[in-house]
Write a structure and sequence with these properties.
This protein is an alpha/beta fold and 224 residues long. It contains eight helices and seven strands. Helices cover 50% and strands 13% of the residues. α2 runs antiparallel to α3 and α3 packs parallel to α5.
Amino acid sequence: MGKLFVIDGTDGSGKQTQFEKLKERLTKDGIDYRTVSFPNYDSPSSGLVKMYLSGEFGEHAKDVSPYIASTFYAADRYATYTTQYKEYYENGGIVLADRYTTANMVHQAGKIQNKDERERFLNWLWDFEFKLYGLPIPSEVFFLKMPPETALDLIKNRENKFTHQEQKDIHEKDKNHIIDSFNVACDVAKKYDWYTVECVKDNKLRTVADIHEEIYKEIIKHIV
């Protein structure tokens, strides 16, 4: 099998920015790789995800069960994996992912306050995506740990990723959801031994270049 590297974190943590920096660096260094982003908004498989995020099933994230919402994202991942990069990955290819099953572990588990109930959900999710759907388990997950107060400020004027308008999706516009997701993500990162990248040090936001260098040095350990 190949290598799968995932960039993840809560909204406003800089996932897409770091994803693009890694693409540029890998290309510059002549390393063969493929990329995938979730949700896959260019595919029909993301239809239910779009309906969920636009509020068609409920105006707030917690209006939809984390189990039900997770099935939307999992189906999108399965369709994308099967049609776009399964053969490449199984033949030893390097895949870089902007979000993954890990995003369900952050956003959907963040809806569950009871720790025992949350643990049951995480175990169910692992079996559902990695065993039932047979999706590849990441070689390494980079968790961009961005404090909620900083993240909220950074996404204040950001456009919606699939409508390209200023209106926020039900995750981004819910301050409590972002805070809950961050708190749970910190625990989940420890549980699954994700590589945690501190985006703020000494009360200062680290530069994009500084964070990129840390991630790249870790990835290179796996592929050279």
